[in-house]
Amino acid sequence: MSLMLKLLTITLLLTSFSYAETTSEKIEEYLTNKYEDNDNIKTIIVKVEEVKKLEASKEWKAYVVGLEATLKNKPRELIKQKVIWFSNGSMITKELTNLSNGENYGDEVKPDIKASEYSKENLVYGNENAKHKVAIFSDPLCPFCKDFAPQALKYMKKYPKIFAVYYYHFPLLRIHPASAIITRAAVVAERAGIKDVSIKMYDIQVNAKENNVQTILIAFNKVVGSNVTEADLKDPSVNAAINQDTQFATNLFVSGTPTIYFDSKVDKTRIKYKTVK
Fold this sequence. Notes:
It is a single chain. By secondary structure, the protein is an alpha+beta fold. It folds into two domains: 106 residues, Nuclear Transport Factor 2, Chain: A, CATH 3.10.450; 161 residues, Glutaredoxin (3-Layer(aba) Sandwich), CATH 3.40.30.10. It has nine helices and ten strands. Helix 5 packs across helix 7 and helix 5 packs across helix 9. 30% of the residues are buried.
C-alpha cells in the first residue's frame, strides 16, 4: 500500500450512517466526515462516480468513490484516487465477502472507463471513432499476455473501423523486473515510428529477472527492429508515459495481466472482441 493510500485509508470496516436523501449522498457525507478526522488531510472532496450492482446480492451495491485531497505536509500536491465501498442503503463496509463461495467482491468490481479517459497516445490500432473500444493492460514478459496479446492485437488490427485498440503498459516489476526496460524502450520505439511494437515485443527472449540494461536493449532492438539506446530511456517523458499508464491502471484497480476492457467495461472472458461480427 502506498504512503498516500495509507494516509487516506479509513480503518472502520462496517458501520451505519445517518439519513441523507440518497445512498450516494449518505456515502459522500459519511466518508467526508471520516476523512476530515484524519490529521494528515488538509482538504478532501468525496464523490460517488459509479454505482454497480452485485450479481449475487440484491441488497448490496458497489460504489466507486473518487477522492481529491491535499495533505498538510504537501498542501500544493493534489492527490486523486478511487476506492470502492459497499452499501445496502443503511450500512457501509470496505470489505464484502460471499459466504457461500468465499468470493471477495472487492477483487471483482472494476470501475468503467469514461469516454474522456481514453488517450490518443495509447491508441495503437484502429480509429478512435471505431464502433468498439478495446483497452489492453499488459506486461510483455507475462506468460499469459504472450498467449493473448499478440493474437488479439493482430486480429483487431485487421478491422480498423470496428476496433479502436488502446494499449497500456503495466509491467509487473516484482516478478518481471526486466519489463521496466522493455516497456520504456517500447515507448521510445513507438515515438520513433516503428510499427507494431506492441505486437513484436512479446517475441523478446530475455530472462524476466535480467537487470543488465544493455542485454535487454540488444534483445529488444533485435526483435522490434529499432535502435533504442540507454540514453533514450533516460528521457523524463518516457518515464512519465509509463507512470501515466500504470496510474491509470491503478485507478481502475487493475492488479493482474492481461486485463481487458471492452466498450469501457472490464471483460473477464477476454474474448468479447471475437464475438463482434
